[in-house]
Design goal:
With 71 residues, the protein is mainly beta. It has one helix at residues 4-9, and strands at 12-15, 27-35, 44-49, 51-54, 57-60, 62-69. The N and C termini lie far apart (42 Å).
Amino acid sequence: ALPISFLAKNNVTPFGEAGEVFDHNLHHSIALSPTTEKEMDGKISEVLQKGYKMKDKIIRPAMVKVYEASA
């Protein structure tokens, strides 16, 4: 892994946090997490691997699990 200072100096920033709304342009969903809370539907439940972007370009999407509300 590269030191954080190297990444910051080169405008590379991590992204992907639990609770964020899932965006297929930024995140790669590998699993769904069932929930009974409607307001959590479509939000990230767990981040398995942070994503990285350089300015506005995605270098690596974040690997996440996403909440899915039961009907």
